[in-house]
Amino acid sequence: MWKIKGGNFMKCRWRKILSCTLAMALLCIIPAQASEVRDVATVEKVTRKNVLLTGGKKYSLGMAYGETRGSIISQATVGITDLGEGEIEILVETLAQKKSDEIRHVAILEVQESDDSWTEVARYEFDAVKENYPDQDLSGLTNQFRVKTLEINRYYRVRGIHYVWIDGKSQGFSTQTEGLLIKKYPG
Q1: What is the residue-level pLDDT of the chain in tens, covering all 187 positions?
Q2: What is the rounded distance in angstroms from the CA atom of residue 1 to the CA atom of residue 10?
Q3: How far apart are CA 68 and CA 86, in angstroms?
Q4: What are the two backbone dihedrals, phi and then psi, of residue 20, each rounded to the nearest 5 degrees?
């Protein structure tokens, strides 16, 4: 036999084989799963810096996309558009990967204070339940509406909270627009 320091060649080779086999076995034992659907209490938040739009921008959109596998929500969108004279238009949309039991979303309008913090001005909640739309494919919910009498020359933004329920499982996303300066005459 061939001699290697501290023992023979075959003994050393068996140790390497045994070590590699154990390592492979441990890797196979660790469970691998697709991204699990989270409980309704958990909301996937889109993290963004506090950005204020300048240069005459008239609108801002915030979007989040679901993962391709294992996700219930396909896309979540929130938007704000300056229409002038203290009037804005808000868009909130939630799209599911497939037919849903319930879709709910909330649009939260916020104004920037002098200390750069944001204060909630209004909250708008919308939902759709499969039982209320038996003849329709409930795979999305879109609401677009106007808000009047806002203070001009202040920054406003919209945060969205989006939920979808399918077969007892749910997923939630959070979206946010950038701060938009509301003017008397946009553009």
Answers
A1: 455 555 565 566 666 665 655 555 444 443 333 233 333 434 444 444 556 666 678 999 999 998 767 789 999 999 999 999 999 999 999 999 999 999 999 999 999 999 999 999 999 999 999 999 888 889 999 999 999 989 999 999 999 999 999 999 999 999 999 999 998 876 5
A2: 8
A3: 40
A4: -65, -40
Tell me how far apart the alpha carbons of residues 90 and 77 are, in angstroms, rounded to a whole number. Answer: 11
For the chain, give the DSSP string.
Answer: --EETTEEHHHHHHHHHHHHHHHHHHHHHS---PPPPPPTT--EE------B--SS--EEEEEEE--SSS-SEEEEEEEEEEEETTEEEEEEEEEESS--SEEEEEEEEEEE-TTS-EEEEEEEEEEEEGGG-TTS--SEEEEEEEE--PPSSEEEEEEEEEEEEETTEEEEEEEEPPBEEE-SS--
Residue-level length of the chain: 187
Supply the pTM of this predicted model: 0.71
